[in-house]
TrEMBL record:
This is Spermidine/putrescine import ATP-binding protein PotA. Pfam families: ABC_tran. Residues 12-242 form the ABC transporter domain. GO terms for molecular function: ATP binding; ATP hydrolysis activity. PANTHER family: SPERMIDINE/PUTRESCINE IMPORT ATP-BINDING PROTEIN POTA, SPERMIDINE_PUTRESCINE IMPORT ATP-BINDING PROTEIN POTA. InterPro entries: AAA+_ATPase, ABC_SmlMolc_Importer, ABC_transporter-like_ATP-bd, ABC_transporter-like_CS, Mo/tungstate-bd_C_term_dom, P-loop_NTPase. Keywords: ATP-binding, Nucleotide-binding, Transport. SUPFAM superfamilies: MOP-like, P-loop containing nucleoside triphosphate hydrolases. The keyword Transport applies. GO terms for biological process: quaternary ammonium group transport.
Amino acid sequence: MADVPVIPQLDLELRHIRKRYGDFVAVNDVSLQVGKGQFICLLGPSGCGKTTTLRCVAGLEEPDAGDILIGGREVTGEPPWKRDIAMMFQDFALFPHMTVAKQVGFGLEMLKKPKAQIAARVAEVLKAFEIGHLAERRPAQLSGGQKQRVALARAMVTEPRILLLDEPIGALDYSLRETVMLELKTLQKRSGISFIWVTHDQNEAFSLGDHVVVMNHARIEQQGRPDEVLSRPRTAFVAGFIQGNNVLEGKAGLVRDGVLEVMTALGTFRVPLLDLAPPAAGSALSFSVRAERLIERPGEDVPNRIALRCITVEYFGAFRRHVLEGAGGTVVKYDQFGALPQSIREGENIVLGWSLDNGVLHRAPPA
Ligand SMILES: Nc1ncnc2c1ncn2[C@@H]1O[C@H](COP(=O)(O)OP(=O)(O)OP(=O)(O)O)[C@@H](O)[C@H]1O
């Protein structure tokens, strides 16, 4: 018997989605695959097309081109209730007059499930979300975190294949977010439901997502595992958007042994090409180096070195950021663990460097 390849079923597949509003293209050629039970974060600045992409998946917008498959089934053109999805919005959209128990059971009532079955399922979900004691309260009697849990319970009660979440914790107090994120991640893993989470907050995206999709100007600039996107930003936009990168612009020089020379205002640096084609000599390009990857007072064996002056030192909880200035006023950031003794003072001149493999050459943005 011939071996049949096992193709893992995808919860969602977007194939070349395009959505315009008049002449304005809000989503341009977006393709995405979501495996079973994955946690996907759509990350990007305001107006880049995240919500429109989500609304296309939900069936609240019809794409002008492209296909949407949910659980391997083509759903483009089908209404939201036929798509095996649920949605959760930033304002939670709870019904003000309904008790928590009623809200949570609402989706099952719409599906006309038997009363006893609804009661049993609601009790189970209230328990799982630890909101059983709130069953008879109305939204006005709940805290922000509790409303959030009720909204999530309501969305998950019908066990949809995919839950679409648009900035779901954007309205929560900052001090609550970390706890809520941890809870959500645990619930998501336990339920096996795929989450597609829209956010402009990179901390959310990188701490929650199994897969992070970075959008800009209606297109996907990069997608991959959080550690991949963090350590190897594909384009100058992604590198600049993600905290902690130094993005240096320059011109291409010679290539030797797979290493490109880049001439910048700060000096000439060596950056590995990896799988990129050698750029034409003199062409404009950029590369990045993460602020925590810089080395203080590097030895002669470190190929990339810059003379800088420390302008200021900023304190961010676990780390300390040095803002330094080099030739032509170019600013460089250097981050050091807060637990280490401070070794650079404001006003001090210092040489920083980085090893070859910490320079990441960028590709041109998608055309
Ligand atoms: N109904 C509409 N009619 C016209 N333009 C629209 C409509 N909906 C969205 N847009 C435009 O499409 C672009 C993408 O909007 P979208 O809401 O998808 O962005 P976003 O990345 O979710 O932004 P935010 O983080 O601010 O919510 C924006 O420029 C927006 O003004």
